[in-house]
Amino acid sequence: MKTCINGATTMPYSLEEDIKAAGEAGFDGVELWRAKLDEFLQRGSVQEIIDLLDGYSLDAPSICALGGFAWCSETEFKRRLKIAERYLHLASEIGCSSLIVCGEDPGDRSPEEVVWAHSTRLGRLAELGEEYGVKIALEWFRDLTTAINIVNSAGKEYLGLMVDTFHWYRGDGNLEHIDMIPGDRLILVHINDSEDLPKEELTDRNRLYCGEGVIPLTEILKRLEAKGYGGYLSVEIFREEYWRRDPATISREALRTLTRVMRRAGVL
What we know:
Blueprint lengths: L1 E5 L8 H11 L3 E5 H8 L4 H10 L6 E5 L7 H21 L3 E5 L8 H22 L2 E5 L4 H11 L4 E6 H7 L3 H5 L6 E6 L1 E2 L12 E2 L8 H10 L5 E4 L4 H4 L3 H19 L3
Parallel strand pairs: 1-2, 1-10, 2-3, 3-4, 4-5, 5-6, 6-7, 7-10
Antiparallel strand pairs: 8-9
Helix pairs in contact: 1-11, 4-5, 5-6, 9-11
């Protein structure tokens, strides 16, 4: 498996600082946070991003993230599809293999309606992604089985899953559901740990560096390896305590704690 860091982990800093810090720390990849990408392109070019990544020998496995596709009107969906196409084009130019798309809160809708709406809309988005050679990675915030059902129902080669260990833990936390993920549909993994609090009290600010909390990361990684996953493990942490540090320190600590867990699991 390969090491990666998400731009949220170094949220206060620019895209250039993210790339520099990730490269100097020794990561294999860096996810491009969409707002930072937009800000950079107001004053710089796509080629400059490519040159930065190449200069630090980094891959960029994804642009993170878009959302709002499932419950909107057809007119609004088409508008959002045009926005997504811009990022798919950027991803193809930069060399990002995926665009992360967030699932939506089901509200009081039935499980069948949730699966149908997401699989239909994201299936159409995946067809557009295929034109650019960029996969759509669904990020789900609740029970993992629903996300698996969405991807299976859509049946699109360019639609898969991005599994976040924090969302998994706060959602259902069932290790057997990790085993249910179709191996050929797992696009990316966001890896992080969590404070030991009642799950209903957990928010993103309770995320921790890998191995410093209560999520069974070692067991998760062993199960991912068993299904043949060899992709990126991307550290994504929204924690103001960490954000107060400089990006180089954050990146070094993120890699040190990630690789320690990877060694324990035997995947490094």
